[in-house]
Amino acid sequence: MPDRKRPKLAVWKFSSCDGCQLSLLDCELELLAVSEAVEIAYFLEATRKVVKGPYDISLVEGSITTPHDVEAIRHVRRQSRKLITIGACATAGGIQALRNFKDVKDFIDLVYAHPEYIDTLDRSSAVSEHVRVDFELRGCPINKHQLLEVLNASLNGRRPNVHPHAECVECKMRGNVCVTVAKSEPCLGPVVHAGCGGLCPSVGRGCFGCFGPMETPNTVAMAAKLAEMGLDGRDIQRRFRGFNAYADAFRRESEVHGG
Amino acid sequence: MAVRTRTIKVDALARVEGEGSLHVRIRDGRVQEVKFGIFEPPRFFEAFLVGRDYSEAPDITARICGICPIAYELGAILAMEDAFGVAVPQVISDLRRLIYCGEWIESHGLHVYLLHAPDFLGLPDALELAKVDKPLVERALRLKKIGNDILEAVGGRAVHPVNLKVGGFYRAPAKAAIRALAEDLKWAVEESLATVKLVGGFDFPVLEQAYTFVALRHERDYAIHQGRLVSNGGLDIPPAEFLDHFDEEHVAHSNALHGFMKDGHARYKVGPLARYAINHDRLSETARHAAHAAGLGPVVGNPFQSIVVRAVEMVQSCEDALALVEAYEEPDSPAVTVEPRAGVGHGCTEAPRGVCYHRYRLADDGSILSARIVPPTAQNQKCIEDDLLKVVEANADLSDEALRWRCEQAIRNYDPCISCATHFLDLTVERE
């Protein structure tokens, strides 16, 4: 099939660990089929070939942390028919958004021998704070099967079959014994977005929130439960301040606690 | 003759992890300047870690790198265990080695076939290679997948595994799940031997460097997650003395620090070539024969041959993984008990790209007071720039495009993980 007939896919990177775009290369059984269905037009981690935009689908990894990023993401938006963010950095600012709770200017002065070389914004922000986003795929990292589903849905003009319900639901579907009930293990499952398949409870560990808040999470009740289990204010704050610390619901709940 | 100045620029390097750039200036055939820039923005990990609980460090530091999360999770875990005086039983140590073998197989498989081989074949990427030889790329992807299968079986997930903790694992993997990896690993040993043969037949640009190599060395194993730090210059120290001998400096053109040896402010090299030279006598018979057949001596000084050494290390890690899988019995307990106490701990392992060092200072309740992490790519930066200098001087007659590609290939010799390199900056603040 000639290249111009296939939809063009671009993969962009901002501040991140590369793990979410790696998830595309980790689709070992599907990668060649994907590359036959779409033209990989821009994907620096995989190819030095660059095909000019516009692009039918842009996958965006990483958060916005520099003045250059702010310009670059607008450029990506202008060139993209659909813009899909992949992962906690792009959808919520990522672990690096922990800086948002501190005074970053002092921070840089302390950290760098030569602060004048550093060009950074005082906040790490989600892509949707800067441009319109067509779909946000959650996770730290994303689930590669969900990534394939999102690509498939986008190519076929339908809504991705990605459920916004709580992690708890996935855990029940997997038949896990509840770690909170059985072991008094603190677990964020009731307020966290599904997507990982209930990984942590499957190894007897409480959920620590890789996929960020679900739709309308009851974080107040969650925090009360954590307190009832003996966690102090500082512990509760730390639970909400992980890879999705600056996602609205988690940020607000974390600000209530501390110590 | 008129003075002629050429500038070779690569604004955004492809087929590396993270964001890097290259700037070379040549005047009358003489190289004036080589800068390997890292513009990946810093993420300040050491700062986030301050005030967090020791038990959170493995999962937080994993997010430094999606390609080598085990290097960070385990580096942090070993450092905490060092600080708390925790020793784990052999079966836990073996499981750690197994999951680390998975990371090596996955990462080396990715780099050898998808990121580096296209340079030697004159192709932009492995997808173009698939158009010429689809079965080869399918086998490469299967090999890479077997690495990920190990990560999933032991760690629960390929990127940022969830099952590792200070003291051991949250749950011991079921014997059946681990033993089930054996058949694929037998195939993987054979396939990685074929890989050594394949990449050994590539044409290598001529470059011979007298590197100072630094790698972990273990009394029995081809070292991955334990051992002493040894150099070919006579250094032989426990990981706890790392900062007495190595340091980093902040240069203007890069967001990553540049590592150097304190003795003589000298550059040094970590990674496959270093491990191979330091631990040649620790390679398995099969791996050593494969290396010999591919034309490698006991020390490799041509960085372009790193692709062959990575393939040899794939043979080694597939064999090691197979032996560990076949010997695996479920432990009585997945983890030992950990009692936090105030102190300092060090952790040092061999990430696929080389030595990765962690140091933490902890309060008596287990809170982190300070963190320092030295990733492999930062340590290799001075060697990368020196290689580039030699490559440009030797190839100044190439066209700009050919020279640009050759320089990119020289950088990819290091499989640089730029996302990692940029996140480490010395933080001196300590909370009381």
Automatic annotation (TrEMBL), chain A:
GO molecular function: 3 iron, 4 sulfur cluster binding; metal ion binding; oxidoreductase activity
Swiss-Prot/TrEMBL cofactor(s): [3Fe-4S] cluster
InterPro entries named among the record's database cross-references: Hydrogenase_assoc-protein (IPR051349), NADH_UbQ_OxRdtase-like_20kDa (IPR006137), NiFe_Hase_small_N_sf (IPR037024)
One Pfam family cited in the UniProt record for this chain: Oxidored_q6
Protein keywords: 3Fe-4S, Cell membrane, Iron, Iron-sulfur, Membrane, Metal-binding, Oxidoreductase
Domain of life the protein comes from: Bacteria
Residues in NADH:ubiquinone oxidoreductase-like 20kDa subunit domain copies: 17-152
Name listed for the protein in its UniProt record: Oxidoreductase
TrEMBL record, chain B:
Necessary cofactors: Ni(2+); Fe cation
Positions of Fe cation binding: 68, 420
SUPFAM superfamilies: HydB/Nqo4-like
GO molecular function list: ferredoxin hydrogenase activity; nickel cation binding
Pfam families: NiFeSe_Hases (PF00374)
Native organism: Telmatospirillum siberiense
Protein name, entry field: Ni/Fe hydrogenase subunit alpha
Keyword rRNA-binding: no
Chain sites annotated for binding Ni(2+): 65, 68, 417
